[in-house]
Design goal:
Distance between the termini: 56 Å
Shape: globular
Helix content: 55-70%
Largest sheet: none
Number of domains: 2
C-alpha cells in the first residue's frame, strides 16, 4: 500500500476543513502548521474525533482550541524540565555514591566495570561496554574524557561515568544492581528499591518526552507508576498509567519541599489558565487534584 501523499500547507488546512474542523483564520492555520507539523498537531485533536465517522471531527471542533491544547503541552513541558533535571542530577549522585562506597572501596576501585558485581550482567555489559563507549566517543572533546583517556586509559570512576549516561541508561544500571546496593541507594533517596526502580523508569520516560517535545496530553503512560496501595485505595480515581500519576512520582522524588511546592503551584496555575480547554480526565487528574498535589508537598 502506498503511503499518504505529501501535502502543501494550503492542502493541509483544506484537509482539516474537509474533515469538518472549523478553521476561522486560514492564514493563521497555515502559519501554525508550518511551525508545528500537521501530524503532531493532529494528536491534540484525537478527543474530538467523531465516533460514528472516525475520519471526521465532531461538529464545532475549532482549530484554535486544538492549537491551544498544544500550547498547554508546551508550557507544561517548560514547567517540568527543570524539575526533571533536578531529579536526574540527584539520581546520578546517589546511584554513583551508593554503589561506589559499597563496592569500589578496594583497589583498583573499578568494580563497577565487573559484571559479577551486578545481578543483570547482560544489562550491565550493554550499558558499561556499548552505551558508555558510544557516549565517550560523542564526548571525546570533553576535558574530563580527555583526562581519563590520557591518565587512566579511558577508565573512569562511577561518579564520572554517570555524567555520560542518559537518564534511561542510569535507570537501567540501577535496575541491573543487586538488591543490596539498590536498598542502600533507595534508602538514601527516601524510598524502597522497588519504588525507586519504577520511578526512575517512569521519570526517564517522562524526561524523554519533555526533552523531545513529545505529547503529554491524552497519552497512556508505561510503565504504570507505583504510588502505593494505601494511596490508590484512598484515591480511587487516580490511575497509575496517567500523566497525573507520573507527576506524583516526580513530586515524590524531588529532594526538597521547596521544589515540590514550586512544581505544585506552577501546575495548578497552568490548569487554571487553560481550564476552558483542558479535559482533566485526559491527563488523569481527579477533580480534587489540588488536594492530592498539596498532600505531596510536605
Amino acid at each position: 500500500m502506498d503511503l499518504k501523499i505529501p501535502r502543501s500547507f494550503d492542502e493541509q488546512v483544506q484537509c482539516l476543513i474537509s474533515h469538518k474542523m472549523d478553521v476561522a483564520d486560514v492564514e493563521l492555520a497555515k502559519r501554525i502548521l508550518s511551525e508545528v507539523n500537521y501530524y503532531r498537531l493532529s494528536g491534540y485533536a484525537l478527543q474530538f474525533r467523531d465516533k460514528a465517522n472516525p475520519d471526521d471531527y465532531v461538529p464545532g471542533t475549532k482549530f484554535e482550541n486544538v492549537f491551544r491544547l498544544h500550547q498547554f503541552d508546551d508550557e507544561l513541558r517548560h514547567i517540568l524540565k527543570p524539575h526533571l533535571d533536578t531529579i536526574e542530577l540527584y539520581a546520578r549522585t546517589h546511584v554513583a555514591y551508593g554503589f561506589s562506597t559499597t563496592k569500589c572501596q578496594n583497589p583498583p576501585h573499578d568494580q563497577h566495570y565487573e559484571s559479577d558485581n551486578f545481578y543483570n550482567k547482560d544489562s550491565h555489559n550493554n550499558i558499561i561496554t556499548l552505551s558508555l563507549d558510544r557516549e565517550m566517543k560523542n564526548s571525546k572533546d570533553s576535558l574530563f574524557v580527555i583526562h581519563h583517556a590520557a591518565k587512566y586509559s579511558g577508565r573512569m570512576p562511577l561518579w564520572v561515568i554517570v555524567e555520560l549516561l542518559s537518564f534511561t541508561n542510569l535507570s537501567k544500571l540501577y535496575s541491573a544492581m543487586y538488591n543490596s546496593e539498590k536498598n542502600i541507594i533507595a534508602a538514601n533517596m527516601g524510598t524502597t528499591r522497588e519504588i525507586l526502580k519504577n520511578h526512575l523508569q517512569c521519570l526517564a520516560n517522562l524526561r524523554n518526552k519533555v526533552a523531545h517535545a513529545g505529547r503529554l496530553y491524552n497519552v497512556v503512560y508505561n510503565p504504570p507508576a507505583k504510588l502505593g496501595y494505601a494511596f490508590l485505595k484512598q484515591n480511587k480515581l487516580v490511575k497509575a498509567n496517567t500523566l497525573f500519576a507520573y507527576l506524583l512520582a516526580l513530586m515524590r522524588r524531588l529532594p526538597s519541599t521547596s521544589d515540590r511546592q514550586l512544581l505544585a503551584t506552577d501546575i495548578m496555575n497552568l490548569l487554571t489558565q487553560y481550564a476552558n480547554c483542558v479535559e482533566l480526565s485526559l491527563i488523569g487528574f481527579p477533580s480534587d487534584y489540588t488536594k492530592c498535589l498539596n498532600n505531596e508537598i510536605v
